[in-house]
Write a structure and sequence with these properties.
Blueprint (H helix, E strand, L loop, with lengths): L1 E8 L8 E6 L7 H11 L4 E5 L6 E6 L4 E2 L3 H13 L7 E6 L2 E8 L2 E5 L4 E4 L4 H8 L12 E4 L3 E6 L3 H5 L5 H10 L4 E6 L9 E7 L4 E4 L4 H12 L7 E6 L7 E7 L3 E5 L1 E9 L2
Parallel strand pairs: 2-3, 4-6, 11-12, 13-15
Antiparallel strand pairs: 1-2, 1-18, 3-4, 4-5, 6-7, 7-8, 8-17, 9-10, 10-11, 12-13, 13-14, 15-16, 16-17
Helix pairs in contact: 3-5
Length: 279
């Protein structure tokens, strides 16, 4: 019998943000069982919490279709759950993942996670090909570089001129898969500097059909990668900002991004469901 939670990350509300599965005491599970549980829970990612000899905890992440090396929103969901349910009392921890070992900070009701060192890959893809996949006019793509960036997982950053274009996208998910495969990225991450909330710098959408998630509501690692991208291209006035995401699918949330010596992303979470899995 396993204890599990469904937790909305990057929000403090029950039906907003990005839901993640969290499964406790999972070290004895075979990876096929973990994949089956992730498919059953149907969250974009489910985190499985295990003991670690290298850190405080080890986490493995599974989308409904496959395992991924790192997941930001599932990490926030996991450590918020462990904090709020009394599993942990320290404010600073280390997490082992397939992408490496990362620092975790608990700041009040927020969880912040360190991101991996940024890796940048230039792309040869045309604006027309991306616009066709997103269901927008080529003129709607801004003049900033289109670049694949990873701080744990690769996403393809695509700058969009305004909020109206973001809100009216009609993505073709098969074409998005083709673009992602061609550019060795797991998702297309579109962003604009025109926002709904005045305290946010970025409005974003994330399309990840390769992971079995056509549109991911609010993403952690993709926002971390975008933070590295914005810093590289001189688009940040300070070392921290907030990004909004998920409005177009009714699951809005806010990600805090810090770009200093290390990139960190963070946010709140909300436990929606607690239950047991009988195996």
């Amino acid at each position: 019998m396993l204890l599990f939670y469904i937790v909305n990350a990057f929000t403090n509300k029950p039906f907003k943000g990005n839901p993640a599965g969290v499964v406790m005491e999972a070290e004895m599970l075979h990876e096929k069982t973990m994949q089956n549980i992730a498919s059953m829970l149907k969250c974009s990612e489910t985190a499985f919490v295990m003991n670690s000899q290298r850190a405080d905890y080890k986490l493995r992440f599974f989308s409904p279709k496959r395992e991924v090396d790192l997941c930001g929103h599932a990490t926030v969901a996991t450590f918020y759950t462990m904090m709020s349910q009394g599993f942990i009392r320290k404010e600073r921890l280390k997490m082992e993942t397939k992408a490496g070992i990362f620092d975790i900070e608990l700041r009040g009701n927020k969880v912040f996670m360190e991101q991996a060192k940024p890796i940048f890959i230039e792309t040869n893809i045309s604006k027309g090909e991306i616009a066709n996949a997103l269901g927008i006019e080529k003129a709607g793509i801004d003049d900033l570089p289109i670049e694949a960036v990873s701080t744990g997982l690769f996403s393809l950053n695509v700058p969009i001129k305004n909020l109206e274009i973001m809100q009216n996208m009609k993505p073709n998910f098969e074409k998005i898969k083709e673009v992602c495969i061609k550019n060795k990225a797991g998702a297309i991450f579109t962003f604009t500097f025109e926002t709904i909330n005045k305290d946010c710098l970025i409005h974003a959408r994330c399309f990840a059909p390769l992971y079995g998630v056509n549109e991911d509501p609010v993403t952690g690692t993709a926002n971390g990668a975008l933070g590295a991208y914005l810093a590289k291209h001189g688009m940040l006035k300070g070392s921290s900002y907030k990004a909004e995401q998920g409005h177009e699918i009714g699951r809005e949330g806010v990600v805090s991004v810090e770009v200093e010596e290390k990139i960190k992303i963070g946010g709140e979470a909300y436990i929606v469901i607690k239950g047991k899995i009988n195996l």
